[in-house]
Description:
By secondary structure, the chain is an alpha/beta fold.
Amino acid sequence: MKIEGIDKVLIIGSGPIVIGQACEFDYSGTQACKALREQGYKIVLVNSNPATIMTDPVMADATYIEPLNVKRLEEIIEKERPDALLPNLGGQTGLNLACELNKAGVLDKYGVKVIGVNLDAIERGEDREIFKATMQKLGIDTPRSGICHTVEEAEKIVSEIGYPVVVRPAYTMGGAGGGFCYNVEELRTICSNGLELSMTHQCLIEESILGWEELEVEVVRDAKNQMIAICFIENIDPVGVHTGDSFCAAPFLTISKGLENRLKEQAFKIVESIGVIGGTNVQFAHDPKSDRIVIIEINPRTSRSSALASKATGFPIAFVSAKLAAGLTLDQIPYWRDGSLEKYTPSGDYVVLKFARWAFEKFRGVDDQLGTQMKAVGEVMAIGKTYKETLQKAIRGLENGRSGLGFAKDFNKKSKEELLEMMKTASSERHFLMYEAIRKGATTEEIHTVTFEKAYFIDQMRELVELEEEMLKTPGQMPADELLIKAKKDGFSDKYIAKILGLREKDVRKKRTELGLVEGWCAVPVSGVENQYYYYSTYNAKDESTATDNPKKIMILGGGPNRIGQGIEFDYCCCHAAMALREMGYETIMVNCNPETVSTDYDTSDKLYFEPVSLEDVLQIYHKEKPAGVIVQFGGQTPLNIARELSDEGVKILGTSIDSIDIAEDRDLFRKMMDNLGIPMPEAGMVTNIDEAISVVNQIGGYPIMIRPSFVLGGRGMEVIYDENMLREYVAKAVGVTPDRPLLVDRFLHNALECEADALSDGAHVYIPSVMEHVELAGVHSGDSACVIPPVTITKENLETIKDYTRKIAEALHVCGLMNMQYAIENGKVFVLEANPRASRTVPLVSKVCNTQMARLATRLMLGEKLESLNLKDKKFKHFGAKEAVFPFDKFPKVDPVLGPEMRSTGEVLGLSDDYALAYYKSQEAAGSNLPSEGAVLISLSDKVNLADQAIAIGEEFQKLGFKIYATEGTAKFYEKAGVKCEEVNKINEGRPNVLDIILNNQVALIINTPWPRRDAVADESAIRKAAIKYKVPYITTLAGAYNTVKGIAAARNGHGVVKSLQEYHATIEEV
Length: 1072
């Protein structure tokens, strides 16, 4: 069934993963593609993010990986001529773009119809003034507020409402630019920043409702105006913490039926007046004292909450929304309980909790503080029978090294008063602090006063603390049977019980199994489709699930919550493994707990267990299902952390053996293997204290050196050290250093070009689709560096050497499946940096640029196929793909945005073109840094000796293009000497006008500022970089980046090239 006259639909994706807009939109976009294809539509998809399943060539008929802006979209629309646009599945990015295309007249010009939402209605939802007026008409209370377009207007509004107030800019995402103001100074700062960020240059100033209950309703509406409430979400953290950072429960746990019905009626009124077809998320605040309900905001699109609501209820909101937009109504879609979906009501005798995961430890100088701007980088969802059980499952799903709530950091050593004081500010540690405060005797009243958390949740936690204290009375021995049974039913994990009592996890597991304490699995039925379920475990119910006795059954372990260093790329690999196994006739079982992903979609695998990826849960599923083997190499570090223990319990691990993975992780063993193979590595040593460190530095030839802890992902704690003082400081700060977990010291390779190779291996033969060259030099983490495939400057000999080394290492490690190798080339000599015999974050990138489905092919190899039978040939490319990383520095204004060996990017974009310089230019455009084609550039170089030729070439190129060059004193002298004209500008403390003045007055369109590598760098520089972020001036901190940029600007002058779909690029690849 299709809408008449519509055959081809355009879907706009949400772009790179940033804080506040993560892979839940990959999930909704992928579902929409499936739903529309089932209805017989052709799909054109546009998204700049290469890491997603959604941008895979198999998902749509034409896939464009292009920068998301009006100009590029108009080119795509002109070329593809879609009949309709579906804008409400690509997050805020997709919605804003649809509105801009409409305002620019592009949609009318090409006759594109908008389906799923009415764009005027979007304005009613997003534009703060119109929204407020609409609410008043409907008789729905909103917080007292006013709209301002200038800071003076804001001050006038506040004189009527009084402090504290909240500032909310219109058309922004994840609470960006907003915040609480307690005085006029804060108001001026926050408001002027908010007005800058807002597309319509307006802000809402509203009364503070801090400490009220925050409640959400998820509504779906169809073209017949039939509405259903899918899910009610209760935020356990009160108003004041952004809902994306808040700890949430579904269904309502402490809210009366009466209040629930009032919220539902109001939500229906609002959704009807705005006229959305599909899903809408409505957020309310309720004051328990006065019983007043006010509306906070609505999201007339699928959102992060709708991904959570979908997974919590088994109602796939994005899938159903796409079907409704495509012309179906609710009564035409099946419902497992009452026939069709218009009769849907939320049901289920289980509790769902969401807990966020943050990345404060990655950013030096950031306060761990939560407010109205979202800061979480990922989340986990847990399902259980009781609140206590579910809470503890969520904690062990987080994977932050804690298997329970107690004894986090040094909180247990603090007094009750200190803990209560710390809890006054909402932070990522608040619930862990609360646990210890209860242990120290804090009353429910005392905790409520500082946190506004409701008594019910505090009392539930108190019961857990009391039970734990009971167990702690007999340390070193197994708890009494009744006590152990109670602890397991309340969700205490085997690992945590073992840890606090000083026992072995193995013994706890053995004891509880003897007592018959094993998990039972319960089903969550899926609405909108026939006969689909997924499963969760509990110790509070009998097992209701049946396992097949199919001998061809494989279990895949997912990656858990997203975090910096382990993101959606690993989910991409898990999904492709499931698809490949299905094609090969295997039954697939997926275990994962991340609600935002495609892998936890009900039909990605044959059977989904929505569970923490921890030993206790995985092992019991394994014994229940008895699969032929388990795949651990696709979920990042998460499954690898438990792989050894799984194997000891007799689990069959597929692909590369755990011993090989350990050799690659263990520097000593790996170095011995490299020596045997005659492959060079940078000189290095392992140290456990400062004296050893100093002697190793002398052995390997002095500073600079690279230092890091062993066994980490995403370069955690890696640093470049330039002298003994820095070394002493680093070693003093390092925690948990033991002889089996030493610190690793390497010689730092100077001006070395970094590159990596992803390979497929069957243990005997190796296939390398392409080598990837990094733009930034060695010393910048590979996840943060811009890269290009195929390589541009690597010599033919070096490429041969890299391929030869990769082959030798893969054969020596007996790699079966995927492998990622990192190399650096210093003065023409290739060094091996590290080997990762597992999926890496570059897999989706290589797969899409080279048209080699790496994860699928690796799955076939792991199940015993040989490389020859896959018939892979070397390829010759006529196009280039440039990847650029996207950073969250705008959310952390106190952080200096300099790149280093620790990974800090949250996502990535890809630029594709037949010309390398243009591909790089497009990757910058997609990352939101619009490179100027003319104007002035500010250059300030710290180190002018090293790479002087490249620095001069950059100046000459800008001069040739007719740019005006501003430079600070030293740089200006350096350029004058080389014959490059520039105007000298004062440093910050040298008098006015200075560098900051010319940035603030919009006199420069691009800033090139290379930092001193030392951390105690001049404050001057970091002030320049921070100003660049604040005033949205593109800034570059490396010479390599600057050189590519100037080449890109020159190339873009001759036209931006034509837009081509991924399918068209793939058609031009030649096999050799």
